């Protein structure tokens, strides 16, 4: 009996040791990648002061989902709080205490938005820059000019702490957005501007906002880093939207109600996307119809 007990104890302790070693390995390997620094060349970002341009920057902030992580007033908020995935919070983008705006140049902010890289060259954690890497200099400039026009909000930085499961899923490639800087081409040349039009090209430009949840192929599935209770993102390719017309697709985005009368539920940010213009939505529809 004592021999069996001894064997069980040794087996248990061995399993605990293996699990501890595995956890430490996951932590170390993920930390190395999360703490990596990147060199990104700075390019001049246009500044805007006209009311129409500031309002366009505000619309971009709202329609591109910035408030989902940085709150409606830009002060930041905790958007995921899960012991397994981690605690993730958006930065305070105002000039108030705890905010970063007064400490960043427009060019540094543009690098953070489009490259997922902070002032010190370190990768930003869970910054979905893959959604914004193609944003034009003009649109980035209007977005930043809007941020600089907003009131200062005193609010400390929320916690950013990847959890054990989040780190593991990141290591095996299931949550690349944890360090989007890893998969972005930092030598790409950004467009100065793009003319809004009901075209496939412009629709592709708008659709980049959707990739964070719907995937790079826009065919849906589990959302990166989302808690298990979140529903999977819908397939928004031509096949996934085969029961939609252009008209009711746009109506669904505007109202949050599908053609069958059911309501779109969180985390689908239909209120934010409802800020897209008719031209943007029609171009988006046209582009999505090319994905089969």
TrEMBL record:
Transmembrane portions of the chain: 7-29
Gene3D superfamilies: Cytochrome c-like domain
Domain Cytochrome c: 52-151, 198-292
GO MF assignments: electron transfer activity; heme binding; metal ion binding
Superkingdom of the source species: Bacteria
Keywords: Heme, Iron, Membrane, Metal-binding, Transmembrane, Transmembrane helix
Keyword Heme: yes
Protein name per the record: Cytochrome c
Species whose genome carries this gene: Leptospira meyeri
């Amino acid at each position: 009996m004592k021999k069996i007990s001894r064997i069980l104890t040794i087996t248990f302790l061995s399993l605990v040791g293996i699990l501890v070693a595995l956890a430490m390995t996951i932590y170390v390997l993920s930390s190395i990648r999360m703490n990596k620094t990147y060199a990104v060349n700075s390019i001049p970002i246009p500044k805007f002061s006209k009311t129409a341009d500031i309002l366009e920057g505000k619309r971009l902030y709202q329609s591109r989902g910035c408030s989902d992580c940085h709150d409606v007033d830009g002060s930041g908020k905790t958007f995921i709080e899960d012991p397994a995935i981690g605690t993730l919070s958006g930065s305070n983008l105002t000039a108030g205490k705890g905010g970063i705006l007064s400490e960043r140049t427009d060019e540094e902010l543009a690098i953070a938005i489009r490259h997922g890289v902070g002032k010190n060259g370190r990768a930003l954690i869970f910054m979905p820059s893959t959604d914004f890497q193609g944003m034009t200099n003009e649109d980035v400039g209007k977005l930043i000019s809007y941020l600089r026009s907003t009131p200062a909000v005193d609010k400390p930085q929320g916690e950013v702490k990847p959890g054990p499961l989040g780190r593991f899923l990141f290591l095996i490639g299931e949550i690349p957005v944890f360090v989007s800087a890893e998969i972005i081409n930092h030598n790409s040349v950004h467009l100065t501007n793009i003319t809004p039009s009901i075209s496939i090209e412009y629709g592709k430009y708008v659709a980049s906002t959707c990739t964070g949840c719907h995937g790079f192929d826009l065919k849906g599935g589990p959302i990166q880093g989302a808690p298990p209770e979140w529903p999977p993102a819908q397939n928004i390719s031509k096949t996934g939207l085969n029961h939609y017309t252009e008209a009711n697709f746009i109506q669904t985005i505007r109202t949050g109600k599908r053609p069958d009368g059911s309501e779109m539920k969180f985390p689908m940010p239909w209120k934010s996307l409802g800020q897209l213009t008719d031209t943007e939505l029609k171009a988006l529809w046209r582009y999505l119809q090319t994905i089969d």
